[in-house]
Amino acid sequence: MNSLFFNHVEENELNANVIQVVESFARQNNNQQIYLLTSPLGEKYKYDYEKNAIVILSPKHKIIFLDLAQDADQFNEYYNDFVEDLNSISDKFNYKDHIGRPREWKQEVTVKETISVDFDIDSLLEKHLLSKELRRKGELLISLLIGSINDIEKVGVETPETILDKVKKNIILFDGDQTRFIYKEFPNKTVSIQGLSGTGKTELLLHKLKELYVSDDNSKIFFTCHNIALANTLRERIPSFFNFMRVEKQIEWNSRLWVNRAWGSRSDKDSGLYSYLCHFYDIPFLKWSSLTDYNKIFSQVLDYVNQIDEEDFKYAFDYILIDERQDFPKVFFELCEKVSRKKVYIAGDIFQDIFETAREAELKVDIILNRCYRTDPRTLMFAHAIGMGLFEEHKLNWFDDRYWNTIGYHIERFDNREVHLTREPIRRFEDLDTEKLDSMIIKRSTHVEQVLEILKVIQKDNPSVKADDIAIIILDDNKQIYDYIDSLCYNISEVLKWNVNRAYESKVQEEDAVYITNPNNVKGLEFPFVICITGSIKNTYKYRNILYTMLTRSFIQSYLLVQNHDNLEIQEKGLNTINQRRYIASIEPTDKEKEDIKHTLVKLQENVNMSYKEFLNGIFDELKIKFAVRKKLEKALLETDIEKFDKEQTINFINANKGFYSK
């Protein structure tokens, strides 16, 4: 089924044929966004005639009201009530000041039709195509009807001129899969969505949170994630999001709603999900150490909880929402389901979980989001390619055809195992003149002067750009990066007169300040422009995953600045193919190479749920390394490009260097 299609109409004898015809049309037109409704989503409006009518919504087209029972009087009453309620929603979200009253727009962007025996959706849509001048107004009304509320003060009704303004003022419409996650009733207790970076996972969790919070006055909800910076961002966003969505209920922090990281501290029970559960179930709290990780603490809690007699057991929460699924072990989700009375909602990145080898498990999630609405498709393709090593002779990963299709790719095969991977264009970019704009740029220098030059070009090409439209991300992890950041901050302030935000310290976004950070404080954030800086392109899974994630933080352009040019030419060639031909060109691994890749991932998977300290101590014990030498070897290993949990390479390094460090 077309992931852009959404049907919220209960089927009956009158409407079954219409629904079938539209569904068939949607399957054949994968880029046509269509919704079938009988009343506004997320609202409590109901109508006597809605079983006899269907409302068809599709961007660039009028809102089409279909009369199925051919009762003119009842249908007109339904139409007028529907338009009146739509006007109330428009007034509620301050759209009315921009799009006007119904007497102005209902003649322009709505139409009434009576169903005929030979119903033809193609002709109907063609007949009611909107003029370019009215399309934004039509999309704004659709956004109200599906609950995909936009900030009208920011997007406006006038068509923006520059690419930056077009992207910033783009009207966001949930696609069919996104809408299903918010409004569909799922029978299972745990509901999971998996999506690529930029598919709107975090935004959907916020909408789901709103729906849950307002529907039950007595519910207890915990919204959690691994990253502290993301938890802080979520906690700051929720009050403004609730205000924006006109939630009239007051937020009862730490009595009805908790938003915090997964771990927490012993001294504050509300500081994390683990700390709260330890308090709630009277379980000893384990503080973080090199020998204590998620797998250990959540297994401990689950063991405690499972030992409670059924008649004495109490649920800690009604709902738990989890962002960034890939940061947690399986036992964490088992625990969340155990301690939640009603539902657990999980969102994760289907590409970031680099150690996942059981792809079938991911294909069975409830909703898969493969349309990236944030990042230009060319940037996304390059990020995927460099993340998996697709341009290189030795690939880091490769998917079967079914999984390529799942994450939004079409694969074509040619002679000599050459494959082309293409993606469908995304609605957000189809109306933008981006052909002459390079969305992904590689530079062979990391000098501060190079960064300043890029910032000046961004300023020149985008007169309305602000400092907080830009993120600079230092990908490497060593002490030297902080000297580099000091120089960068000084020069940006002196030369460009822009404020800078050292986000690795502040952990928050600041208005009118360039966001400068390491990769640890970027999850869940997005910027029109992103500049990624690295000494060299390393071959470890962890590094390539970080590189993919950071490059896909941009709306418009991503820059990759590399100091060491080894392995860079092949990446530049691959990017050039993407820009010119709109596909990833790669050589498919042989069956033997695929098995080797799988073997490597399986070996890494065996150790991923232990801490690196535990992993190393196990090897040190196995090799009988003296305690006095272990710290030196551990420090040396961290300076190499060896994958952290690659046992074979780690053993080879230790055996080759233990004599030197024993002196």
TrEMBL record:
InterPro entries associated with the record: DNA_helicase_UvrD/REP, Helicase/UvrB_N, P-loop_NTPase, UvrD-like_helicase_C
Keyword terms, alphabetized: ATP-binding, Helicase, Hydrolase, Nucleotide-binding
Coiled coil location: none
Molecular function per GO: 3'-5' DNA helicase activity; ATP binding; DNA binding; hydrolase activity
Domain of life: Bacteria
Keyword Hydrolase: yes
Domain UvrD-like helicase C-terminal: 514-560
Helicase/UvrB N-terminal domain location: 187-324
UniProt xrefs under Pfam families: ResIII (PF04851), UvrD_C_2 (PF13538)
Protein's UniProt name: DNA 3'-5' helicase II
